[in-house]
Here is the input.
Amino acid sequence: MPSTNSTEHLALNQWLGTDKPKMADFNADNLKLDAAMGNHLADAVSHLTENERNVWNHAVPLIGTYTGDGSSSRLIELGFQPAFGIIFAVSQNIVQTIGSSGNMAVYSAFVSTQGASQGVFMEETGITVLSSEQAVYNRVAHLNDDGTVYVYLMFR
Here is the structure.
């Protein structure tokens, strides 16, 4: 005999102590569950495809830091080639004037597959940052100064 009560969504049996369940009642509930789960799992609108999942997973930016070692050129390994990124020195102005020379010390940069700011280059597995004392177009790259902490935000 079916149960006195049933669940709200699938109308599965909810037996009371006085009910006398039969094998057919259990089998009917199993068929309802199988049909509901099968329909849900086959519903492509409710689930991400593998391609959609990859897009979502790669949309998350990578945020990290590195401490400058003072070398003129340094590869920062990311494990991928970023499509776009931002680098800046912690506790530094983005750009600062250097004395009365008219030169600017640059402590930040943008990088993309279309081009980059002075002092950073796109690599297959990361970025190369530069530090120099030599001005180029009145700008001096300071993206790897010894002991300076830098933050990067990279998008795949």
